[in-house]
Amino acid sequence: MSSPEPGTVRLQRVVVHAVLRSGPRLLVVPEGPGGALALPAAVLGHGESPGQGLRRALSAAGVGAVRTGQPVEARSVVAAHPGPDGEEVDVHTVHLVHSVQLLHGGHLGATARGAEDGRWVQAARLPGLPVAPDATFPVTAAQLPAPVPAGDGEVAVRRQRLAAYAVVVDDGRLLLTRLSERTPSPGRWTLPGGGVDHGEHPCVAAVREVHEETGNHVEVDELVEVGSEHFTGRSPAGVLEDFHALRVIVTATAPDAVEPVVLDVGGSTDLARWVPLGEAPALGLVGVAARGLQIARRSAALAEERTAGA
């Protein structure tokens, strides 16, 4: 990725967008200059899950009681934006578009119901999903990297990290990597994946990480989900962090699967293996890997059902 000018502040943030349909219609709200119509959206706050952000955006549009569905699209945009004090900020915005469903007993408030305000549009008339442009979401002080506190007392540094992980299955085997001594959980197993670089699309990050950690080239099949975890802990460097992890999980295929080899030597991975699905639980999986195993098993079960019904 290109380097910013010296002294330029970098910011990576996530914006979630809600796709709520009523028959052939799509819910939109006025956003940005001129009140252009776009999907309800919100910048994720520190510690806020995608589901919470989506519910906040929809609540502002008069919608309550929804279930968050699967992400349907991801976009990656890099642009310079003014900061809260007028300084230039090099902003990488990852837009995650999610389907949502109105729950039984949920409601559409007056602003969402009214046909006269143009909030419901015929989806077939749109060229695609109307995602609000970056300029709609100003850079606030709360979004910017938190400064390291001064003084003798130790205070947790706020950090939000976006990462991408891949569920890769070949011949009934799940691709897993073992965490090295450089990590907080050495010896445990996880999905291949890691941090999304500034300016990088999450799917591109997943492909890159799989290759670096296992030597396999993969192709992304589908965005599956975006997980969120908020906790306080120490970084590998020993810094106390108020840490917010956002994890994009994709499914991917290795067209020419090879025996895994760790290419990024000295990093967070010290071993990679193809592991039969039935043997994976005994390895000692971290949370994202346990979730990946569930996804892999579900996909395998669906494939068996399709084969049986053929």
Automatic annotation (TrEMBL):
InterPro entries: NUDIX_hydrolase-like_dom_sf, NUDIX_hydrolase_CS, NUDIX_hydrolase_dom. It comes from the Bacteria. Keywords: Hydrolase. It holds the Pfam family NUDIX. Residues 159-301 form the Nudix hydrolase domain. GO terms for molecular function: hydrolase activity. Its cofactor is Mg(2+). This is ADP-ribose pyrophosphatase YjhB (NUDIX family).
